[in-house]
């Protein structure tokens, strides 16, 4: 059976749902497809204990959705996984989007047909084929799990879970649990399971600076403050590199006295948004090594206040600068102070292999009942590579043979009328505002193409495609920004050197959400320069 639509959205997480909403506003026939049996994307798949946002609740939602704040109040400063899911469902219901969503429908293939200027899209689970003018891949930049290559892991007798593929409750009570990885997922998970398990061993390739976020209840007055200062709050977000509700005055760290630095950092440690350490009162933590070292010295002092065992302290104290994606989780060091919680730091005792009973390091055998991989994702491009759409000159993977590329993080040359929600070279920041900026831009481009079609009067599909030169210019800009940042020196999914064998020239836009947004506005105001519209 063949079905014809104006637009197909793949994925029903925050990105897919918002793109669906925007395209419906244009009056197009649109359908969104979701692989999982429920909406939510990351918030569906990440049901590991303690999964929480680390962006404050008032801005982890759609900006043009102010009325929903009043009808759907939130109760904690940071939202738990289930709250995010409920918010998304409430949004879907309020805008009557459910009837355009098909669940349990996994994309099998997508290919562009030049003769008809349409995309042919097929789905595995339903066997259905669709023809569509526009194809939006909102498949999540943090969706395809990164499975580490651990020798002998298949011999392990117990279950091996990945935090990113955790769609149901798993019983860890009284078990000996090994957790590999200590990014946001690992840190949240470990703090939340420690009191349930009999023994917790954290296997760390590199230890992380983990700062508190001090989650807690939100009062009606605080919510009222947000409602009445909504526009001001978003102005702050728009000026923040990570799209956070944190003032960012750009003061150099070393321009103030040592006492002032100490006082400021103590305030953040005891305050409510740990992200302010990296992008907050001081503006040069990721560009000045001296500033970064000063902050690391502060962290070292703080960690030592929680950890009295010198061996644990040595293993938990990072040797790298503070440049990875910030991890905020209250209770992290308190958890490691507990007697039944151990750390293996590969720097001192590398992992040798997995075996039937657990994990063997150069120091000893760790017997385990469960191994949990909190090893992150093939970020930015992993899901897109698996879909591997076929464009006008071959597959996406062929185009990306030397690394994944894009124009503005949302389109690729040779793939007309196809767009990404958070593709490679998108900013790394608070996710919903990036989704909105990109979806608004895509909807604007599509509106332009639809207007042109009407103007032409021949009802022929208008193709929107990024120009090679524009893409090269964008990649050059991304590289220039990366060159000026210390972030390129650490192993991280942000830079792409995280995935072994990656040859990505530059993985994300490191200039921040604030500059990305201005760039997108400039392109929009310049009549979508860099895109050609043809038919
Ligand atoms: P992540 O930040 O990429 O961290 C992965 C962890 O696994 C790191 O500790 C990494 O070590 C380790 N690792 C990777 N490969 C390994 C290997 N072969 N052997 C040993 N260790 C290995 O992944 P994540 O924690 O899932 O978080 C991903 C992103 O999702 C976050 O940064 C964030 O954007 C998002 N997230 C957000 C929240 C939230 O909002 N609170 C919660 C969860 C996730 P190295 O440091 O040495 O690379």
UniProtKB/TrEMBL annotation:
Keywords: FAD, Flavoprotein, NADP, Oxidoreductase. It holds the Pfam family FMO-like. The keyword Transferase does not apply. It comes from the Eukaryota. InterPro entries: FAD-binding_Monooxygenases, FAD/NAD-bd_sf, Flavin_mOase-like. One of its GO terms (molecular function) is flavin adenine dinucleotide binding. This is Cyclohexanone monooxygenase. It comes from Hypocrea atroviridis (strain ATCC 20476 / IMI 206040).
